[in-house]
Amino acid sequence: MCHRSVGLIQGAIESAGISTVSLTLRPEITFHMRISRAAYVRFPLGNPLGEPNRPDQHHLVLGQLLELLELAQSPETVVELPFRWRRWDRWLG
22 — phi, psi (to 5°)? Predict the structure, then answer.
């Protein structure tokens, strides 16, 4: 889904009083959308939760995302999660 669309949807949900958090691959877009809470991962587009067929990795990313929802103290919080893509050589080849 488009980063801007997610920002608009997230803003509408927040204005109804429901806390949200999003996962972004493009923090510069997320920042300009003034999203309330988001986490950034350094993964290629189309793979926001990590490498295919790695449910363990997906669960870790999702767990960190939900933790941010609980712990974020200020509005417009965007944090970078510590995960890195290990298969860059396959994408560059």
Answer: -130, 165
